[in-house]
Amino acid sequence: MTLLYASTFADALGKLSHNEQKQVKITTVDLMMDPKGTGLSMERLNRAGDDKVWSARVSQDLRIILRRDGDDNLLAYVGHHDDAYRWAERRKFIPHERTGAMQIVEVVEREEMAGPLVYTGSSSEPATQEAQPFWALSDDQMLDVGVPSEWLEAVRAMGEGALDALFERLPAEAAEALYDFATGGRLEDHIAKPVEPGSDPFAHPDAQRRFRVLDNVEELQAALDAPFEKWAVFLHPVQRELVGREVTGPTRVTGSAGTGKTIVALHRAVHLARGDEEARILLTTFSEELARSLASKLDLLVQGQGDLGDRITVRTLDQAAEELYTAQFSAPTRATASQIRAIIAKATSAGLGGELTPQFLLEEWIELVDAWGVTDAESYATIPRIGRRTRLGPRQRETAWAVFDDVRQRLTQRGLVTWAMIYGQLTEWLRDGGALPFNHVVVDEAQDLTVAQVRFLAEAVGGRADALFLAGDIGQRIFRLPFSWAKLGLDIRGRSHTLKVNYRTSHQIRAMADRLLPPSITDMDGVEEGRRGTVSVFDGPAPDIRLLDDEQAEIACVAAWLKECTSERIAGGEIGILVRSEGQFSRARDAIAAANVGNSVRIATMHDAKGLEFRAVAVMACDEDVLPDPVRLAAIGDIAELETAFETERHLLYVACTRARDRLLVTGIKPGSEFLDDLRASDTA
Ligand SMILES: Nc1ncnc2c1ncn2[C@@H]1O[C@H](COP(=O)(O)OP(=O)(O)OP(=O)(O)O)[C@@H](O)[C@H]1O
C-alpha cells in the first residue's frame, strides 16, 4: 500500500480555509490508516477520463479527488463539491507515451481553448496575426520533452501572448521546455532520459517532481501542515539530482535569484544527515538573519524524522569560526574598523606612509593586507592586486608596509584580532592537524565568502568527497571584490551546476531584473554562470518603474500602491519596502503612514533583503544620489575597486527587485538612478 501526494493537491489545499484544511487532514490520515477507505464515503467518478478516479467525502461540501489503484491511493485534488468534480472531469492520469513519466493531463476542449491558450484549429500555418512560436515543431520534438500527445495540436496553434499560461496548463517539464524554446533556448536541452519499457511511471524523475510517496503519518502530516512550502516535498529533477549526487570534491550550485539554491542546500544537508548516523553537518551562511531563516526551514524539513535535525548545526560561518577559535585558543576580541582607522591615522601623522593617504592605506589594509593575511613585506610585494588598479612601486610598497607592520604590532599588543586573522589562525591550526567538529559543510550565499573564509574551508575539507557543498550566485555578490577560489585551494571547476527554474518571481519581474546583469557571468576561475534559459513557473502583473518630481510625490505614489496591494488582499506582512540604506527609511515609513496600512509592512535595506521574499515589493528611493551610494563610492580611492563597487551596487538593486514574487514597484526622484535605465530597457531576452 502506498499513499502518494500530488503537488496539485498541495496547491488546492493551500487555497482552503484553516478549518477546512483541518478537516482534510483528518480524512487523509484516516485514508492512510485504512487505505481501502472502508470508513469513508467514497464514490467512483465514472465520468472522469480514467476509471480509477474517485471522490472521498470530507464534509458536506468538501471532496478529495483520489486515484485508486488497488491499495494505492494518490491524493490528487481537494476542493468544494462542484469545483472538485469539475477538476476531476477535466483530468486524465496517464504515463507519457514517450518519456514514461506519469502526468496529470488536462483535457483539451476546443471551446475552453478560447481562454488563455488561443487554439486556432489548424497547425499547418499560423492562423492569426499573432506569432505562434511552436507552429513549426514536429510531434516528435514535442513528445521528446513531455508534451502530452493530445496537446500537440493546441500547442502548435498557441499564440505567443499565451506563453505564460503554459505552466498552468501543461505538465511542468513540457512547459519549461516550450517556454525556454520560445524565449531563445533549445528544446534539445530538455529531452528527458529514456526510461526502460514497463518501468514505474511514478519513479520517473519528471513524475517525482509532482508525486511524492508518503511513507508514514508523520510525513503526511508534515506535508499537509505546510501546503505552501511545496519545496519541502517536491523537488525539480535537477534539484533532486544535485541533492543526492556523490561528488569527488567541493561542488557548487549556482543559478539566478529564486531558482532554489537555498532549498537545494537545505535538502543536501538533510540528505547527508539521513545517509549516515555519524554525519555532523555544518549548514552555514553569512548573516544571522539568513541563518535563522535556514534554521526554521530546516525544522520543517526534519519534522517527524527523529533526531535527524541534531546532526545538522546551523550557524553563520563567523559564529562557527568564533566558537572554534574560542575552543582552541580563547574568546577573540575583534578590532573595530574605527580602531584600525585610528591606528593608521596615528601612524601617518607620525610620518609613516609617506605621500600615501590614510584613506588609501585603510583600503589597502582591508582589501589586501588583512583580507589576504599578508604578514611580511615580501608577501605584500607579490600579492595579486585584483580589484585594485593602483600600482605601487617598490619604494612606495616599502613605505606602505611600515604602516601595516605598525597596525599588526599594535593589534597584537592590544590582543585584538580581525575576522581574517581568526580564520587565518584556524587555517594554521587545521594545517597542523586540527579537525573541524563537522565532516560536511554546506554553505549558502557562497558568492560573498572572503579570502580568509575560502582558505579556511579549503583547508577544512581538503579535496574530500562530499565534504563541501556551496550554493551561490555571482550576480548577487554584494560585499566582496572577486578573487580566484582555485588559487586558494578550493577548486570547483567541473563541479558547478546551474539551476534554471525560478520558483520565486513571476516571468515579468524576473525578465526585468535580469536586464541589470549580463546574460552570463564568469568567475575568476573561468567558471561560467549562465542566466539565459531561466524560466519562471508563474505569471504576474508587469512591474512598474515610476520617477517622481520630489519625495512627497514619491511617498504618495508608494502609498497609493500599498493601498492597491491591500485592496487585493495582500497582507501587510507580505509586503516589503526596500531602500539602499537606513538613511531612506523615513521615506518608506512616511509612505506606510500615508497609506494607513498598519505597521506590518517590512522595511529593510537592500543588503538586509538577502534571503527575504515578499508577495509585493516596493524598491524606493532609487535616486541619482542614492544608488549607487555616493558616500561609498567617494570613499574609494582606487579606480578598479570603484568599478567593482559600482557593480556590487547594481547587484544590490538586482537582489532588491528579485525579492518580489508577484508585484514590484520601483520608484525614485527624477532623474533617478542610472541603473533604472537598464531596468527599463526593452526586453531582448
Ligand atoms: N522545488 C521547488 N518547489 C516549489 N518551490 C520551490 C522549489 N525550489 C525552490 N522553491 C521556492 O522558490 C523560492 C526561492 O527559493 P530559494 O530561496 O532557495 O532560491 P535561491 O536560488 O536561494 O534565491 P536567492 O538567490 O535569491 O537567495 C522559495 O520560495 C522556495 O520555497
Helix fraction by DSSP (H/I, runs of at least 4): 25-40%
How many discrete domains?
A: 5
Query: What's the story with the biggest beta sheet?
Result: 6 strands, mixed
Give Rg in angstroms.
Answer: 28 Å
The largest sheet has its strands arranged as 2-3-4-5-1-8
The CATH architecture of the largest domain can be named as 3-Layer(aba) Sandwich
Count of helical regions: 25
User: What ligand molecules are bound, each kind once?
Assistant: adenosine-5'-triphosphate
First and last CA, distance: 48 Å
The number of E-state strands comes to: 25
Structural class by secondary-structure content: alpha/beta
Overall spatial form: globular
Strand content: 15-25%
CATH classification class of the largest domain: Alpha Beta
Q: The CATH topology of the largest domain, please?
A: Rossmann fold
Mean pLDDT: 88
Uncertain runs? 118-123
Characteristic key phrases:
single chain; 685 residues; alpha/beta; YaeB-like fold; Rossmann fold; 5 domains; six-stranded mixed beta sheet; six-stranded parallel beta sheet; 25 helices; 25 strands; 39% helix; globular; binds adenosine-5'-triphosphate
Description:
- The protein is globular, with a radius of gyration of 28 Å.
- With 685 residues, the chain is an alpha/beta fold.
- Helix 19 (451-461) links the parallel strand 14 (440-443) and strand 15 (468-471).
- The chain has five domains: 1-101 and 199-229, RelE-like (YaeB-like fold), CATH 3.30.2310.20; 109-191, no CATH class; 235-326 and 431-530, P-loop containing nucleotide triphosphate hydrolases (Rossmann fold, 3-Layer(aba) Sandwich); 344-417, no CATH class; 541-680, Rossmann fold.
- It has 25 helices and 25 strands.
- The protein has a six-stranded mixed β-sheet. A six-stranded parallel β-sheet has the order 11-10-14-15-9-16. Strands 21-25-24-22-23 form a five-stranded parallel β-sheet, sandwiched between helices.
- Residues 234-506 form the UvrD-like helicase ATP-binding domain.
- It catalyses: ATP + H2O = ADP + phosphate + H(+); Couples ATP hydrolysis with the unwinding of duplex DNA by translocating in the 3'-5' direction.
- ATP binds at residues 255-262.
